[in-house]
Amino acid sequence: MLQAAESEIQTCDEDEPWLPSSRAGAVPLRQSMGSSNPICQLAKQAELVASTDFTVLVSGETGAGKDLVAKAIHSLSPRSGGPFVAVDTGSISPTLIESELFGHEKGSFTGADGPHAGKFETAARGTLFLDEIANLPLSVQPKLLRILQEKEICAVGGTQPRKVDLRVIAATNEPLLPLVQIGKFRRDLYYRLNEFPINVPALRERPEDILYLANRFIEMTNLELNKQVTGLSQEALQRLLSYSWPGNVRELRNVIRGAVLLAETAIEAQHLAIFEEPAAAAACPEPPWDFDPGTPLKESVQRVVVQVERDILSRVLKKTQGNKAQAARLLRIDYKTIHKKVREYGLGCADDGRDIEVRKVFR
Predict the structure, then answer these.
(1) Would you say the C-alpha torsion 177, 182, 183, 184 has a positive or negative sign?
(2) Using CA atoms, how far apart are residues 98 and 85, in angstroms rounded to an integer?
């Protein structure tokens, strides 16, 4: 029923020269995320950086699979025999996050009845994954920067620093540079974390993966529920392909799990719990910023201006295929200004030697 649709899906070239030496690492990442060209390039980047001890900053929307990339880098690295410790920095109370990350000594605060090893020590000889790093309190950021630079920690209430041997991978679902611009994230920490950036494309940017992932989730849910759902009807497939997937792969997984539970044989369109039609989503878009009632109005407006400016610049550069001179003419600004803003916003098309080399590697 879906053979024709499957034959039209474009995937990466199995004969790419980098695959034979890395098949053990690249294939599992592709098995969990898809086999479109963006995912193939993503797998290539993960393999290239895995053999190093570079700090990696993984960016992408919520539900896109940033944790899968972090785990893949760990599993491909020389540290794969060590622990992989994941920390959601947004879920820890600001008053406890230092203790959770760096540990504490007995009596360092009320309730500290004994010494406690933090996540940095727990991840020794392995990888520490700091998820949602944008939520890290400003008061803790200098200490994290010091640890990344000096490779040693000092527990809360302690006086003697201890060496730590681990690799740090951070992830964020919002661009950090706008936060740097308004003083909510330290510039020096941003550049230290951004030693090797990887962006995970949203599911709507790689529709070739939707059918593959849907079939994979059907198989997994069949095993879980002891069912034999055969696949998707053409109508159901078209519904999946026309949806914008604001929740990305996580949302697709949940929709398919519910559909398998409802279906008897094949999944039909009515089994899919998709309530937001693409046209309605386009007509009523969500605001491109988060409003914090505790933030002064001037600061909130400045943050929105930075985000809108970055978005406009990104769209124009995409239209001009990275030609900054042409983009400057369209935006009616001088070349020096657009060059400066491209670098500030990390849009990846600056003309310095490092960016040129990066483009050569990932072309």
Answers:
(1) negative
(2) 16
C-alpha 129, offset from chain centre: 12
| pLDDT of amino acid 354 | 37
Give the list of residues 6+ apart from residue 46 with CB closer than 8 angstroms, or none.
Answer: 25, 26, 29, 69, 72, 73, 76, 198
Question: What CATH superfamily is the domain 13-201?
Answer: P-loop containing nucleotide triphosphate hydrolases (3.40.50.300)
> Which of 274, 286, 275 has its CA nearest to residue 210?
274
- Side-chain half-sphere of 220: how many Cα atoms within 13 Å? 13
CATH 1.10.8.60 correct for 204-278: yes
Encode 322-360: b = buried (16+ Cβ within 10 Å), e = exposed.
eebeebbeebeeeeeebbebbbbbbbbbbeeeeeeeeee
Q: Whole-structure pTM over 0.85, yes or no?
A: no
Helix (H, G, I), strand (E, B) or coil at 53: coil
Cα 52 to Cα 79, 168, 293, 331, 348, distances in angstroms: 10, 11, 42, 40, 22
Which single residue is written with the structure tokens 């790689």?
206
Enter the tokens of residue 41: 């390039």
User: Please, what CATH class does the domain formed by 298-362 belong to?
Assistant: mainly alpha
Task: Give tens-digit pLDDT for 265-285.
Answer: 999 999 999 876 444 444 445
pLDDT in tens, 132-177: 999 998 988 998 998 899 888 766 665 677 888 999 999 999 999 9
- Rounded to a whole number of angstroms, the CA Rg of the chain reads 23
Question: 156: phi > 0 → left, psi -120 to 50 → alpha, else beta; which?
Answer: beta
DSSP state letter for 284: S
